[in-house]
């Protein structure tokens, strides 16, 4: 048979998602992918160790019910209002599978989490970018953009800024389709849209255990919505989308909220120091309700600064994207890590 093209043209055209660098050797101060600088508790690590026994020959529970029940207890909801994902990235992919046919509009303000573009392109949907205004308030034209799916990342990445929950409540009523609130970073913020799931049957709230719960390596995400919507979402998930080890880790972590609260408080205190230090160096930094900050020198490409920091084994995030080249996104690390970063940045800006 003559060979035929077998890659979809839509895929050939797309840029693809570029995740942050993950150096596998040691020695880096890693402030580039918004992980938690503090480890999960001993109890969580023990639950992971206990799980990795003979039972790994058996498939995991396809619905991860132990994890859903732990999340239900933690958040005061029912199991039926929760679906687990292999990270919240997996849940975002499920949402596209569930809702987006070729040509369907998917709406979100930019800049935001760059995986959304990739997932819409894979689905063959139509990306509809709106612009965040200078003050990072919810744009006025979100509902009018008429998305099959509308996504608001809150706190937003990479800005760290937060849209008041009342504005999201109104938006859920106004949009014609599904509203997704991506709350990956919400434990570092003062409020959350989780309470809205009881009021809207077109709302999904996404959380992850990768950030506040210190489990990025375990891949555990949670979607919250009304039971009918959660049932539909479950139809398009991979059959065994969480491993036994992930389920055990997530279940233990959700039962250990005190550790998370303590780590979040430390991160918030360090975040205030980081923002003050960066502003002292002349960076414009919006107030952040996440575990990272966006530091901007308007019009000045930050690539050389990123390179100089990397040469000193400090990794931050540089985005080679329109409107973001004059900014660095910096994860809130430990106090010692942030001291090292500020000292290195101070050296750069001294000459
Ligand atoms: N949403 C946002 C806004 C993120 O920054 C991330 C982390 N890269 C995710 C979702 C996905 O997180 P995970 O898949 O680790 O749960």
Task: Please give a structural write-up.
The chain is α/β, with parallel strands linked by helices and 351 residues long. It contains 11 helices and 12 strands. The chain has a 7-stranded mixed sheet, with helices on both faces. It has a 3-stranded antiparallel sheet with strand order 9-12-11, with helices on one face. A hairpin with an 8-residue loop joins strand 11 and strand 12. Helix 2 (42-51) runs antiparallel to helix 8, helix 3 (65-75) packs parallel to helix 8 and helix 9 runs parallel beside helix 11 (335-350). It is globular and about 60 Å long. The mean pLDDT is 97. Bound molecules: 4'-deoxy-4'-aminopyridoxal-5'-phosphate. Residues 87-89, 113, 153, 157, 182, 184, 208, 210, 216, 221 line the site of 4'-deoxy-4'-aminopyridoxal-5'-phosphate.
Task: Summarize the main sheet.
Answer: 7 strands, mixed
- Structural shape: globular
Q: Hetero groups bound?
A: 4'-deoxy-4'-aminopyridoxal-5'-phosphate
Taking all Cα atoms into account, the compactness measure Rg is 20 Å
Range of helix content = 25-40%
Poorly predicted segments: none
Q: State the assembly state of the protein chains.
A: single chain
What structural class do helix, strand and pairing data support? alpha/beta
Average pLDDT reading: 97
Q: Specify the number of helices.
A: 11
Order of strands in the sheet with most strands: 2-8-7-6-5-3-4
Number of strands: 12
- In whole angstroms, the N-to-C terminal distance is 64 Å
Strand fraction: 5-15%
What is the H-and-E element order?
HEHHEHEHEEHEEEHHHEHEEEH
């Amino acid at each position: 048979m003559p060979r035929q093209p077998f890659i979809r043209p839509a895929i050939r055209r797309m840029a693809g998602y570029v995740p942050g660098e993950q150096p596998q050797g040691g020695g880096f101060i890693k402030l580039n992918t918004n992980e938690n600088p503090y480890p999960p508790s001993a109890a969580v690590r023990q639950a992971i160790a206990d799980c990795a026994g003979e039972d790994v020959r058996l498939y995991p529970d396809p619905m991860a019910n132990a994890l859903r029940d732990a999340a239900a207890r933690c958040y005061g909801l029912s199991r039926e209002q929760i679906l687990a994902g292999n990270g919240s990235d997996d849940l975002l992919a499920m949402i596209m599978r569930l809702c987006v046919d070729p040509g369907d509009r998917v709406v979100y303000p930019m800049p935001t989490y760059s995986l959304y573009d990739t997932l819409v392109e894979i689905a063959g949907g139509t990306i509809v970018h709106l612009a965040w205004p200078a003050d990072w308030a919810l744009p006025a034209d979100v509902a009018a953009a008429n998305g099959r799916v509308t996504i608001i990342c809150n706190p937003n990445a990479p800005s760290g800024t937060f849209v008041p929950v009342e504005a999201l409540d109104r938006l859920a009523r106004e949009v014609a389709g599904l509203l997704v609130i991506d709350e990956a970073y919400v434990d570092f913020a003062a409020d959350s849209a989780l309470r809205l799931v009881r009021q809207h049957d077109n709302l999904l709230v996404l959380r992850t255990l990768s950030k506040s719960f210190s489990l990025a390596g375990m891949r555990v995400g949670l979607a919250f919505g009304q039971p009918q919507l959660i049932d539909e979402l479950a139809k398009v998930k991979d059959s065994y989308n969480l491993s036994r080890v992930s389920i055990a880790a997530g279940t233990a972590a959700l039962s250990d909220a005190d550790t998370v609260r303590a780590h979040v408080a430390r991160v918030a205190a360090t975040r205030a120091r980081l923002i003050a230090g960066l502003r002292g160096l002349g960076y414009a930094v919006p107030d952040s309700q996440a575990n990272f900050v966006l530091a901007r020198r308007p019009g000045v490409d930050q690539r050389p600064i990123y390179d100089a920091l990397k040469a000193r084994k400090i990794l931050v995030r540089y985005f080679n994207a329109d409107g973001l080249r004059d900014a660095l996104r910096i994860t809130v690390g430990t106090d010692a890590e942030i001291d090292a970063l500020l000292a290195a940045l101070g050296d750069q800006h001294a000459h």
